[in-house]
Amino acid sequence: MKLLITGGAGFIGSNFARYWTTQHPEDTVVILDKLTYAGNLQNIADIATRVTFVQGDICDTETVRQAMSGCSTVVHFAAESHVDRSIANPDVFIQTNVLGTHTLLRVARELDIARFHHVSTDEVLGQLPLETNERWDENSPYNPRSPYSASKAASDHLVRAYHTTYGLPITISNCANNYGPYLYPEKLLSLAITNLLEGKKVPIYGAGDQVREWLYVEDHCRGIEAILQKGTAGETYFIGPGEQRVTNLELIQKVLGMMGKNENSLEFVADRPGHDQRYALSIAKIERELGWHPTVALDDGLQRMIDWYSTNDIWWKPIKSGDYKKYYAQQYGTRG
Ligand SMILES: NC(=O)c1ccc[n+]([C@@H]2O[C@H](COP(=O)([O-])OP(=O)(O)OC[C@H]3O[C@@H](n4cnc5c(N)ncnc54)[C@H](O)[C@@H]3O)[C@@H](O)[C@H]2O)c1
Known about the structure:
- The protein has 336 residues and is of the alpha/beta class.
- It has a domain at 2-179 and 215-239: NAD(P)-binding Rossmann-like Domain (Rossmann fold, 3-Layer(aba) Sandwich), CATH 3.40.50.720.
- The chain is 42% helix and 16% strand.
- The chain is built from twelve helices and 13 strands.
- A seven-stranded parallel β-sheet has the order 3-2-1-4-5-6-11, with helices on both faces. It has a two-stranded parallel sheet with strand order 7-10. A two-stranded parallel sheet has the order 8-13.
- Strand 1 (2-6), helix 1 (11-23) and strand 2 (28-33) form a beta-alpha-beta unit.
- The longest helix has 20 residues, at 91-110.
- The radius of gyration is 19 Å and the shape is globular.
- The N and C termini lie far apart (45 Å).
- Nicotinamide-adenine-dinucleotide binds next to helix 1, helix 4, strand 5 and strand 7.
């Protein structure tokens, strides 16, 4: 099988490319990635000989046509993915996440792709109240609240519309927050771990009482593999850790404990506008229909992630200098 992975130089896409080429060495893998600030060839340096890398924009039809040519399967990760950046500059989110996805769909239809898998997020569903134990399932209504989640919601709708209207064999996965190696150090957990390794404080939005679900990235990769192998075209599957309930503050307190630090290393900063309170996914469908289950417990995954960042400062230190420093100063003040 020849597989196109868009966004394969980003966090999850690179983990997926590594996972796929390890599990399915007989397959041919092409990665299409624009290499925005979030894309990094270092993320795939160790698998460079196992993949063909194409630098290009998913909004460009000819580039997409060339990269997709001869492929039977597309796994679409490429996106602008950071909520804070979408609040500061929404335009590029609409461009890449909506128009870019549409370009891929158009070409996938033209080339008769056998499976187009779209990787999406739980954030399209909006937020749940903190005080309930309710969980979303695949039939819950969309209610995106940030430019990022609205652009991802739009892309999900387009992908479904291409199935309904043109019969394109699509599948969609909406996943909880991922964590693990190669997570860009602007996201909560990698920011916390790298700041602590540098002896700096960890910024916490508001009171840190927001509830997220955390899935170790390799479990996400296995979930997508299960959907590609056993999922039904036209269907959406939720992927997450299942019964987990942890506030952002509790999560960072775990990390502090594991890294031998205390709460003096925390710094509470003004909350993000429209910060969603709680996300919670029911994973009953993928467990029941595809036999997928999460395998990495939160404490184990956090320890693996801390170990990886502790031994890979050669990867994250250059990222935390340069342009990223300017972004950090804008976002959290001048403490980066
Ligand atoms: N990170 C999470 O916790 C999470 C959770 C659920 C779903 N997702 C989804 O998974 C996907 C991957 O997320 P991630 O965290 O790995 O993101 P990321 O920001 O780390 O990587 C995105 C990649 O896409 C590339 N890219 C951006 N714009 C492009 C364009 N116009 N053309 C080609 N390539 C482009 C970037 O260079 C980068 O390599 C996204 O679609 C995101 O919405 C992420």
